[in-house]
Design goal:
The complex is a heterotrimer of chains A (317), B (475) and C (271).
Chain A lengths: L2 H31 L11 H9 L2 H8 L4 H10 L7 H14 L6 H19 L7 H22 L4 H29 L9 H13 L3 H7 L6 H10 L7 H19 L4 H15 L2 H7 L1 H24 L5
Helix pairs in contact in A: 1-2, 1-4, 1-5, 1-7, 1-8, 1-9, 2-8, 5-6, 6-7, 8-12, 8-15, 11-14, 12-13, 13-15, 14-15
Chain B lengths: L13 E2 L2 E2 L4 H9 L2 H18 L18 E8 L1 H25 L4 H4 L5 H5 L21 E10 L2 E8 L6 H14 L1 H6 L8 H11 L11 E4 L8 H11 L2 E3 L4 E4 L2 E6 L2 E5 L1 E4 L22 H6 L4 E3 L10 H4 L2 H9 L6 E2 L3 E2 L3 H9 L4 E5 L8 E3 L5 H13 L4 E5 L5 E6 L2 E10 L1 E4 L3 E3 L4 E5 L13 E8 L3
Parallel strand pairs in B: 3-23, 5-13, 6-7, 6-11, 11-12
Antiparallel strand pairs in B: 1-2, 4-5, 4-20, 8-9, 9-10, 14-17, 15-16, 15-17, 18-19, 19-22, 20-21, 22-23
Helix pairs in contact in B: 2-6, 3-12
Chain C lengths: L1 E26 L6 E10 L3 E7 L5 E6 L3 E15 L29 H11 L5 H15 L1 E2 L10 H7 L1 E2 L1 H14 L4 E8 L11 E9 L3 E5 L11 E7 L2 H4 L2 E6 L4 E11 L4
Parallel strand pairs in C: 6-7
Antiparallel strand pairs in C: 1-4, 1-5, 1-12, 1-13, 2-5, 3-4, 8-9, 8-11, 9-10
Helix pairs in contact in C: 1-2, 1-4, 2-4, 3-4
């Protein structure tokens, strides 16, 4: 297929996953904001959400104080913020419009419907839109599009590029969320293992829709060790780094078979998979969770670049 | 019918109070449809159009780029007999236009014979020096010829203009039919309506038939679009989808060695035929506008050396130029040795002093058009204009006479249309799409445009026109 | 006269560029004025293809380079046997009709100044040839040769306003002036052998051809106040300098381009 079409499909996946991740981030912020401000670290929980999203500076410039109302505007409706949910949904739909012929009517309806709805919400009085409704809408919409791709799209190469976009973005997002929790949310090391810490971890798991799954799998106290195991190495958790990387690997395998050639992308993902498959939580914590995650985020970036160079430029890399 | 027919205009459905035969099958349908049902159906149609994403951006108007062209559910109908004659006339014209193009880029016989002034052809802006001497595969420069027709009487058709470059609107022809069949299946059971759905297959066949000699095996044809910001982008995706061809932008193609290649996830793939929907000037920055970002550098060299076919061929525009238009009947006689079946609208060239004089004296009665204009812009409809507008045009013509032609205001036929108050006659035109390749084909139908404003004679969608399904009744 | 040509164009890019493509018009055509004895165009690392003879009778070919490149050298070398036909182009096979060259381009757009210049120049001239010579002479006198004052994008009207320019500007002015009089005119790019050997920069040259009834295309070189003779090698023609350019190219990338052109034309001693 046309490299540009593959690129558009790849980005539909990435944008939708990003929109969803933003909604989850907003939810984390909202729940954490319910706690009394205990000072230290970031001035309030909302700021940490911005830091996680990577838009703190742009936000300060435009809005000033990090109060909930402004954060919602910024992360949900702001056209100037390229990763706001509105921007992501618009970009996903725009990518879809360009490759209208490479997706099914059902997928297009879901994408286009989401776009029409969010434009409608833009026109709605904001007091009528509680934060929970906004985040719920985003998750529901993302699920709808994903469902449409699952049930209606041919399992051809285009489908694999869409899936690659989702998986790469999800890997990146899980790593960032986890990093934010460990590095940013927590104001001081002394809080580690305290009630506050636990509350924050719980929030994080909830935001990942994984709280119950976690309890089933581990039970008892929430510890950094268990969390790391669950969100990094547990293949039962669909958002764990290992799950995401495996998914990328599967898709790239399918492509290698279909195209009768392997590329730099396969080499890259196999390297990541190899490392994760052999990793143990103790080693990760010894290296430092933050350091490990930063390294992972960097490798994910390189993986995305390898996918681009191998398939999305039209020249054999 | 809610209003008495205006005797000045030919009403395609009614003739002296009696329903004309082709429309007989619509009489009951129209009368039996209660207003509520009609409103409901109209909404349904609009929803369908919006869902499939068929929209139209109006040039230079800003506003909602996702605007719909109004769809009028009342079909426009031709009998098999009426169509047979039109078909012969259209094919004849398409053949003559292509013969003309091969000639003026070749030996120029028609000019040598003195049947058309040499300067009109050779100094024409649309005449492309870069393609002089090319005989494209099958001798076809314009593979898709759109001929705009108006009707003024039961048996009187005029050609308003020819479109030899990349006429748009065929997606409406196909989608209008699709939607009518979905909404009113009983109409299609009662009336025997010739299908138009073969168009996509015929177009693909046409494109394949003009593959270059260097291409062995199944040709790879693609559609080249300026991108999704183009107002006809929907049509580009639609055609790509219907034909199963890749829809490419300039950035997806590159030249290497003797050929044009497409960037795919499996590496470069050779392209044999390009159905381009971008203008000549943007095709290749190494040949035309150096600043074009839409084109493919080196494409023209590959085309000229026979490595790829471009449809329509660069330079085809010289045949549909409004100043050349006057000579099309002459082309039919010269190349085919036949009498033209379709008539031209009498046209005055403002460049000629005597004709300009006539035009300036009769502005309130005439339609004045820019020679290179399109889309209903830069146009004066004398009888519908204020004195101020007429005077403004007078100075424009005096300033650049060669830029304008004038025609009598034609009494465009009307067809019943659904309007606010019920059903009323509205003026219509017709654009059928003729395919020229190994064979010459015309699907029975076309795009009927309707001026939805009462009394308006301008059918362009950019000026408030709508579209209708166009039926050709089977024998 | 037998002339040998070596013409080397070197491109250097500050940062590598991708998808470099050139359209080259680097091959003299055979006619009565010139006969190619030997000719070659080489570019290391590049692929040459998609060649054809265009309607104006010039050979055009395409150079493409795969992947990223940081530089390119195009080397032209060959020998041509030339004849002096008093500037008249004879036996050149072309199919473009002369009236096509009545159209102006961006560079040769008419202006009031150009019209006045042309009318004044030809006043009193009876014949087509006389008018053409008068025009060329006026351009030579009006546009003073002065390198560095104009650039590649300078139009004929602008050059006339300045009153100076290089051979490209003089040629544009001559073409534009001829067009205002309804004389078909075109731009010719080629090589010039100069006996002194000191005018190396001028070895890559440009002049105009005007179409005169009864004679056909006739060359006029306002820079040297003469008609092309055996010292001239004709490479190709077009509406203006851009259209007739021996090399037109593009590449993907924003890097600054350093261009070095070295042309050498010498007389070959007959054995």
């Amino acid at each position: 297929m046309l490299s540009r079409t593959a690129e558009n499909l790849f980005w539909i996946g990435r944008y939708l996953e990003r929109a969803e991740a933003n909604a989850r981030l907003l939810e984390v912020g909202a729940r954490n904001a319910l706690l009394p401000n205990i000072g230290g670290g970031y001035r309030n929980e909302w700021e940490s959400v911005l830091v996680a999203g990577g838009t703190y500076a742009a936000f300060r410039e435009k809005y000033g104080d990090a109060v909930q109302r402004n954060i919602e505007s910024h992360m949900f409706f702001d056209k100037d913020n390229p990763s706001s949910i509105l921007s992501c949904v618009t970009a996903a739909r725009e990518n879809g419009r360009i490759v209208r012929t490479a997706i099914t009517g059902q997928v297009w309806d879901a994408l286009n419907g989401a776009f029409q709805e969010i434009r409608e919400m833009q026109r709605t009085e904001r007091s009528q839109l509680p934060l929970a409704d906004l985040t719920d809408w985003t998750m529901r919409t993302a699920a709808l599009v994903r469902g449409a791709t699952q049930v209606s799209m041919l399992r051809n190469d285009g489908f694999q590029f869409l899936r690659l976009g989702y998986a790469v973005e999800r890997a990146d997002n899980t790593a960032r969320l986890l990093d934010v929790k460990y590095y940013v949310l927590l104001p001081e090391v002394t809080y580690v293992g305290t009630g506050l810490d636990n509350y924050q971890w719980t929030t994080l798991l909830r935001a990942l829709s994984s709280y119950r799954a976690f309890n089933h799998a581990y039970g008892g106290e929430i510890t950094a060790w268990k969390i790391a195991e669950f969100l990094i190495l547990n293949t039962q958790c669909p958002r764990s780094l290992l799950s995401c990387v495996s998914e990328v690997n599967e898709s790239l395998d399918v492509l290698a078979r279909a195209y009768h050639r392997t590329t730099g992308a396969q080499t890259e993902v196999r390297g990541m998979l190899g490392e994760l498959a052999e990793a143990r939580v103790d080693d990760i914590l010894r290296e430092g969770l933050h350091e490990f995650l930063q390294r992972f985020i960097d490798r994910t970036r390189r993986l995305a670049e390898a996918i681009r160079a191998s398939y999305l430029t039209g020249r054999i890399a | 019918m809610s209003k008495a027919a205006d005797p000045r205009y030919f009403n395609e459905m009614e003739d002296g109070g009696a329903v004309r035969a082709p429309y007989a099958g619509l009489q009951d349908w129209m009368q039996d449809m209660p207003v509520e049902l009609r409103t409901l159906k109209q909404h349904e149609a609009e929803k369908l159009f919006r869902r499939i994403g068929i929209t139209f951006a109006v040039y230079g108007e800003g506003g909602d780029p996702d605007r719909l062209i109004p769809f009028d559910m009342f079909p426009r109908v031709f009998s098999a007999d009426e169509w047979r004659k039109l078909e012969r006339g259209i094919k004849q014209r398409a053949r003559a236009l292509n013969a003309f193009l091969c000639d003026v880029y070749g030996r120029g016989e028609i000019v040598r014979a003195g049947r058309i002034p040499d300067k009109l052809v050779y100094t024409n802006e649309a005449y492309e020096k870069a393609v002089v001497g090319i005989m494209p595969p099958k001798g076809v420069y314009s593979q898709i010829v759109g001929i705009d027709l108006v009707r003024v009487g039961p048996d009187e058709f005029y050609v308003l203009e020819d479109n030899c470059r990349t006429p748009s609107g065929v997606s409406y022809m196909l989608e209008n039919r699709e939607i009518m069949m979905r909404m009113f299946p009983q109409l299609f059971q009662k009336n025997r309506i010739a299908p138009v759905e073969g168009y996509a297959r015929a177009l693909k066949r046409t494109l394949h038939s003009v593959a270059p000699k260097k291409c062995d095996g199944e040709p790879c044809a693609v559609i080249l679009t300026p991108g999704h910001f183009n107002s006809a982008y929907y049509e580009h995706t639609f055609l790509a989808d219907m034909m199963g061809l890749e829809l490419v932008e300039g950035q997806d193609l590159f030249v290497e060695g003797d050929f044009v290649w497409m960037k795919t996830t499996e590496g470069p793939q050779k392209v044999d035929v390009i159905y381009r929907r971008i203008d000549d000037a943007f095709l290749d920055p190494l040949c035309f506008r150096p600043d074009s970002m839409l084109g493919v550098p080196g494409l023209m060299n590959v085309y000229r050396s026979g490595g790829v076919t471009i449809c329509s061929a660069p330079g085809a525009g010289v045949a549909d130029d409004k100043a050349i238009y006057t000579y099309v009947p002459e082309m039919v006689r010269f190349y085919l040795g036949e009498e033209p079946i379709l008539r031209n609208v009498p046209t005055w060239q403002c460049a000629r002093p005597d004709e300009r004089k006539y035009v300036l004296e009769h502005l309130p009665e005439l339609v004045v058009k820019e020679v290179h204009g399109s889309g209903g812009y830069g146009m004066l409809v004398g009888p519908k204009s204020t004195e101020g507008q007429i005077e403004a045009f007078r100075s424009k013509i005096e300033e650049r006479p060669e830029n304008y032609i004038a025609q009598p205001t034609l009494a465009l036929s009307t067809c019943p249309s659904f309007v606010e108050e019920g059903v009323a006659p509205r003026h219509v035109d017709l654009r059928p799409f003729c395919l020229v390749g190994e064979e010459i084909e015309l699907v029975p139908g076309g795009l009927t445009r309707v001026a939805l404003k009462e009394g308006s004679l301008v059918v362009n969608s950019s000026q408030g026109g709508g579209v209708k399904d166009t039926w050709v009744l089977a024998e | 006269m037998r002339l040998s040509v070596s013409h080397r164009t070197t491109y250097r890019f500050a940062e590598p560029v991708r998808d470099l493509v050139q359209s080259q018009r680097l091959q003299p055509a055979d006619c009565e004025n010139q006969r190619v004895v030997d000719w070659s165009v080489r570019a290391e690392g590049g692929q040459i293809g998609a060649g054809f003879r265009d309607g104006a009778g010039d050979w055009v070919q395409t150079l493409s380079m795969r992947g990223w490149v940081s530089g390119l050298t195009v080397e032209v070398a060959g020998e041509v046997e030339t004849a002096d036909l008093n500037g008249v182009l004879r036996g050149h096979r072309e199919t473009v009709r002369p009236p096509v060259y009545l159209r102006h381009s961006r560079a040769t757009r008419p202006s009031t100044g150009l019209r006045r210049l042309a009318e004044a120049a030809v006043a009193g001239e009876e014949t087509g040839l006389g008018r053409a010579h008068a025009l060329a002479r006026t351009v030579t006198e009006t546009i003073v040769y002065s390198p560095g004052e104009t650039d590649a994008a300078t139009t004929a009207a602008e050059a006339l306003e300045h009153g100076y320019g290089v051979c490209q500007d003089q040629t544009h002015v001559l073409i534009a002036a001829a067009l205002t009089l309804g004389i078909p005119a075109r731009y010719v790019a080629g090589y010039l052998f100069s006996e002194g050997g000191d005018a190396m920069a001028e070895a890559s040259h440009a002049w105009a051809e005007l179409f005169l009834e009864g004679l056909g295309w006739v060359g006029f070189d306002p820079a040297n106040a003469c008609c092309p003779d055996a010292r001239y090698i004709r490479l190709g023609s077009g509406f203006d300098a851009v259209d007739a350019a021996p090399i037109r190219g593009v590449a993907q990338g924003v890097a600054t381009e350093y261009l070095d052109v070295e042309v050498n034309v010498a007389q070959v001693q007959q054995q």
